[in-house]
């Protein structure tokens, strides 16, 4: 049971407390190899470094800092450090939620998607910025003890968000929608030149649709969302005849 190989990474950097907890809990399930960015690389999604060299700095047994993105870390971990696909690729625990459309920007989620592309079971973990890691720990362990009993199809990952405070339980969720305010802020530097700051100072607000990840996480549940990489819209694909009439027909 405990001979698994587990690759862990994150987008907050190798020294983030969330990664430390993930490493400690994952070690109860197998050999843990950590390959993580040498600085905060949040919101780089699935970015790959194709136009520069990458360095891997060994920092003790099975622990490496990499000067690339979270996806670079997964690739180097699988192809260079382990030289085979690990059983699990775990990413996080991110300092801050990844709910709704956050998952498109998140480096935490991007790394987990790279994990399934490399042939491993993969999950992304995030938490409320004020969540207590000591409270999260047993819930993370429970998830890892049980997640192999729930099979996901190919190219799918689990996206887990831990709430603030003692969770009420695990809840299977859909994705919510979010709205960001003051998305681009323009300021002026001491030399009078304008600069821009993305994200603004107010955090996102969520629709909190019933059954959604944001509703669950903000209501105190561990929000568990199965995510897929194949984004094609099934409702439109079911209307092939309609499409052909529009684009291939003889109409106006
Ligand atoms: Mn982050």
CATH topology: Stationary-phase Survival Protein Sure Homolog, Chain: A
**What spatial order of strands do you see in the largest sheet?**
3-4-2-1-5-6-7-13-8
DSSP strand tally: 13
State the share of residues found in helices, binned by percent: 25-40%
Contiguous helical run count: 8
Descriptive report:
- The chain has one domain (4-175, 207-248): Survival protein SurE-like phosphatase/nucleotidase (Stationary-phase Survival Protein Sure Homolog, Chain: A, 3-Layer(aba) Sandwich), CATH 3.40.1210.
- Helices cover 28% and strands 27% of the residues.
- The protein has 8 helices and 13 strands.
- The protein has helices spanning 17-26, 70-82, 102-105, 107-117, 133-146, 213-218, 234-237, 240-248; strands at residues 4-9, 30-37, 56-58, 63-66, 88-95, 121-127, 156-162, 170-172, 178-179, 184-188, 194-198, 205-206, 222-228.
- Strand 6, helix 5 (133-146) and strand 7 form a beta-alpha-beta unit.
- The longest helix is centred in the middle third of the chain and has 14 residues, at 133-146.
- The model has no long low-confidence stretch (mean pLDDT 95).
- The structure holds manganese (II) ion.
- Manganese (II) ion (MN) binds at residues 11-12, 42, 94-95, 108.
Topology summary:
Blueprint: E1 4-9, H1 17-26, E2 30-37, E3 56-58, E4 63-66, H2 70-82, E5 88-95, H3 102-105, H4 107-117, E6 121-127, H5 133-146, E7 156-162, E8 170-172, E9 178-179, E10 184-188, E11 194-198, E12 205-206, H6 213-218, E13 222-228, H7 234-237, H8 240-248
Parallel strand pairs: 1-2, 1-5, 2-4, 5-6, 6-7, 8-13
Antiparallel strand pairs: 3-4, 7-13, 9-12, 10-11
The structure holds manganese (II) ion.
């Amino acid at each position: 049971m405990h001979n698994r190989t587990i690759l862990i990474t994150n987008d907050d950097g190798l020294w983030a407390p969330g990664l430390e907890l993930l490493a400690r809990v994952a070690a109860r399930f197998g050999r843990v190899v950590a390959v993580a960015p040498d600085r905060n690389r949040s919101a780089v999604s699935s970015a790959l470094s194709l136009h520069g060299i990458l360095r891997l700095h060994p920092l003790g047994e099975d622990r490496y800092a990499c000067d690339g993105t979270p996806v670079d870390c997964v690739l180097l971990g699988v192809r260079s450090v382990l030289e085979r696909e690990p059983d699990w690729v775990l990413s996080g625990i991110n300092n801050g939620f990844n709910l709704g459309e956050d998952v498109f920007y998140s480096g935490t989620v991007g790394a987990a998607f790279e994990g399934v592309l490399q042939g491993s079971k993969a999950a992304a973990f995030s938490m409320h910025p004020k969540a207590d890691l000591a409270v999260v720990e047993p819930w993370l362990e429970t998830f890892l003890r049980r997640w192999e009993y729930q099979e996901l199809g190919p190219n799918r990952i689990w996206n887990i968000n831990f709430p603030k405070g003692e969770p009420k339980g695990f809840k299977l969720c859909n994705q919510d929608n979010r709205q960001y305010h003051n998305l681009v802020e323009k300021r002026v530097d001491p030399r009078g030149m304008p600069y821009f700051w993305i994200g603004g100072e107010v955090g996102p607000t969520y629709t909190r649709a019933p059954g959604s990840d944001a509703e669950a996480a903000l209501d105190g549940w561990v929000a568990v969302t199965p995510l897929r990489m194949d984004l094609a819209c099934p409702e439109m694909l079911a209307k092939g005849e309609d499409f052909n009439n529009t684009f291939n027909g003889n109409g106006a």
